[in-house]
Amino acid sequence: MSDDANNTTPTEPQLLGVLAQFPDAHDLVAAARKTTDEGYRKVDGFSPFPLHGIDEALRAPKTILPWLVFCGGVTGCLVALCLQYYVNGVEFPFIYSGYQFPISAKPIFSLPANIPVTFELIILFSSLTAFFGMFALNGLPKLHNPLFRSERFSRVTNDGFFLWIDAGDDKFDETATSDWLNSIGATSVEPISEVVEGRQVPAFLLAVGAVGAAVALVPPLWVAAAAGTSTSPRLSLWWDMDYQAKFKPQTTSDLFADGRAMRKAPAGTVAWGSLQEQQDQRYFEGIEPDGVAAHRGVPAQFVSAQVEGDAPAEAPPEPNWTKDFPVEVTEELMERGRERFDIYCATCHGKAGYGEGLVTTRALSLNQGTWTRPLSLHDQAVREQPVGRIYNTITNGIRKMPGYRLQVDAEDRWAIVLYVRALQKSQHASLDEIPEELRPKR
Ligand code: HEC
Fold first, then answer.
1. Best exposed site among 53, 390, 395, 437 by fewest CB in 10 Å?
2. ∠ Cα 115 120 122 (to 5°)
3. Does the beta carbon of 347 sit less than 6 angstroms from any atom of ligand 1?
4. What residue ranges are annotated as transmembrane (predicted)?
5. Is 80 exceeded by the pLDDT of residue 11?
6. What's the whole-number mean pLDDT along residues 288-308?
């Protein structure tokens, strides 16, 4: 370990190179240039900040890292292609190999399908090469550098500019090189030699390390000893999570007396998201709250079919439809209504509401007999409907017409109803309803 292990006579510490300090950045660059011009090659410069031109002055070789990264990328590409070919593309009769997956009669191995994985492995391999290559080329990790032993060198992070000539250089000679450095303006020249003394790790650190390593081995050894060979049940830290009872909601179980695994929802439970509709029946359903109980979500017309039992089912009572708008009627709402109507209704009902929409026109021209012509919105029956009823038609649909509650929100549905009312008025207003100044002059 110490001297007696190598040699009984203390060996001369090996000289590593000489370190020269220069007064400022310009001097350092100039000195570096002169030194390399003189023929030295193993030269390095140190300064507190990056120096322009120092690389070229030091004749620092270009890094080969880009080439390493390129090779990493090519390797990644090949690995990915071979892997995918091996896993999906071929089936060796004897060697263990992957599966051939025929997908929709596509080729078993096709380049386009394999590009994503290839691309990713190219990136992965090249970035790992860049990362570890940088460390390797810089000789990292390095716990200590002999230069740190120079008192002066500690200024290098503040205001020190240093030039280093390595003892490995062909031209190196301790006295000649030092003289040369002095001659080109170095303020100090210092030979740096290998660290020989104090190399042992302190005994207490070794002891702590050894004990720590031994202790760290206990848990994995314990696990390894118990795994596979032990007949006792495995260690359970949280019993409830390993052994708790499990019930599926829709299956029978003996958990509750009635044989269900889950309790029934209390009466009056409201499905998530439909609470509002419970609260404001006028606004959300177009029905007066005191009216006949509404058949939520189901058009009144359909309900009779669902009433169980005795035929002839009585026609369900009409809900008490809201007669006036539960929203403020404004010019803005009307505009919105026109826009929404043109988007959602005009396709079938036509822009004027007579049922001349493009879809209807086309369907009728095909004459397949399957299309129901929408009712004209100017039909006497529709004109007499309360607004709540029209609102319900939009919300839940009616007979052949689908509901629009999912596409059109409540506010917009009222806007559409308002516009439908305006359309109707536009075709059936009496002369008295038209302001004097707007009446046609005869
Ligand atoms: C896919 C085509 C289509 C679209 C879109 C459509 N409707 Fe209808 N609508 C119909 C058909 C078809 C009928 C007739 C239903 C029947 O009698 O079976 C109808 C009937 C109606 C009625 C009369 C209901 C009754 O009480 O008899 C109204 C009012 C109405 N639609 C309004 C609208 C409004 C407002 C929109 C826009 C949100 C709209 N419709 C969108 C096809 C459509």
1. 437
2. 95
3. yes
4. 64-87, 121-140, 203-225
5. no
6. 50
Do residues 185 and 296 both lie within one domain? no
Residue 333 exposure: Cα atoms within 13 Å on the Cβ side: 19
pLDDT at 8 over 80: no
CATH number at residue 319: 1.10.760.10
What is the rounded CA–CA span in Å between residue 421 and residue 377?
9
User: 308: domain range?
Assistant: 275-433
Residue 306: the pLDDT is: 41
- 8 A C-beta contact, residue 296 and residue 285: yes
345 lines ligand 1 (CB under 6 A): yes
Q: Tell me the C-alpha distance between 393 and 26, whole Å.
A: 88
How many angstroms separate the CA atoms of 34 and 278, rounded? Answer: 91
pTM as predicted: 0.44
Nearest CA to ligand 1 atom 5: 345
Distance CA 160, CA 188 (A): 11
Q: Which atom of ligand 1 is nearest to the CA of 398?
A: 15
Number of domains in the chain: 2
Contacts of 48 (CB under 8 A, 6+ apart): 156, 157, 158, 159, 160, 161
